[in-house]
């Protein structure tokens, strides 16, 4: 961590404070300190005022004829009544070292008597009018001493002690500068006591004071303690001259931040895109929020705490943006954490509840608390890090501003390879050092791909374990694994794809019963770029591709996956009911597709009927076969495997498809076209079902199944009759 402490030597100076300090020291040396005075060094917390004074005092200390320096820290004094005693304890040795041996004992006794008599700041009552304090005439309330000692002190005039001490201090060869730092850290009552001490009690010749404080904070403390309306006017009675710490240039603060962060981020390891994003983050958010040296220190230390443990698992630009926000705007930081967490739900479900877009938007605008172009600029900058945050709706109408705007699952998946803040699999690293619940670490994905390449049996075992692991968001961990592999597809090697297809061919169908689906069909079964089979693009060698595909379609157990690949490719090539897609978009060439079709059909015929009927999405399998152009093939298979009534019903049940409505939810029924394509038509199926229903020996389950199919057919016929009448 960088020490968040004031500079004490010029070697750590990053912002040119040393030059300012030299001029400040020169101003002291050119003035007569013998009469004593009070100088205020004013600046916001973290602005560098203590550093400048420290460096100035170091300059003074190097001058053999310059003043002696004392640093007095009142906020470290546990008992505020001991403030004066502590100050005198620091003054005494500096005064005595400049006093002759003959005078030392008397001077020491005088210092002790004055400090003791002034204990508890009782002297302020006598000298209150000097500091403008409204407590004159209240000596009795402060001097509540007992016994002979109190009587002895009362016999000696405090004024007399003061005058005698002043006479001693006039002869000091070197004046004393007392630096009182962080005056604004004190409680209001303590602030007033220190100001009275400086002005009324310890206002000595050859003793000057430098007070460092935030003017607004100190003035507020004085107003509260004294119950007055203008704290700054009261300060003017104590502070004779003031110096305002100049604001550090944004350029210098940004460069310092970049210099420190470059020690944490290996620039050479970043892509051009990541490097450009990092540069933009520095420029946008440093200029927005970094105002003082302390801001830089706090951001760098926050990065060391939050970035270093997860370096390599997050995007540097996003992390720097987030830590600047964390340091300077906690409300916005908390909003961002809620937002990216909610975005992960979009990635999982593609859904945001009604009203959430607008409520999140209202919260954001309230936190930003800006108007007009400034507000739009800020929102646009946030959009560089947070997808779904943009100014489209804001420009249209501030009241209609919403977030999660025009964003879908694919937008979030695109963030995965870059490990961005809004990535569903990485956002948690930015806040809690760990992958999101129900997510996978990048190293786990890399380990799985390595196993696919070297030990496919182990990879199959790992994949099956992930199929068995539920996610809090729904679905199984294996689905996330597939998404992450697709997201990093550009870095997956040919040999890894070869091994991966063997693993998936063995087990991917086992994931289907647990997978979240869109329109009743698991996306990973589709043969598209952006899905797992799209990794075939990573294999460029035609011979290797041909061998992979032949092995997959000839031996893979995951026939539902093979059916999905065949059906999508059929549509792409225009062999089915759809128009062909442009050849340059095809995943498989014409020759590859022909070889896959041949192997697929042979595989269907060679697989026992019982096994084939257990394939998930069996109806999709039959349509894939039918749409290849081999219309008679699936019809013949159906005929050969429905000889008995029991087999007929098993096949018929396997060929239901799902439908949904707001009234009934999801149901699975046979469709008319299914009976026309694969059986002998609706009427023939109805007649066979009726004959079966007349069998008294049917089990209850069989009778219920037969009745359901007959009811479905009856509904079609009633609907057709109704349409005909209309």
Automatic annotation (TrEMBL):
InterPro entries: KAP_P-loop, NTPase_KAP_P-loop, P-loop_NTPase. Pfam families: KAP_NTPase. Gene3D superfamilies: P-loop containing nucleotide triphosphate hydrolases. Residues 17-304 form the KAP NTPase domain. This is Predicted P-loop ATPase, KAP-like. It comes from Shimia sagamensis.
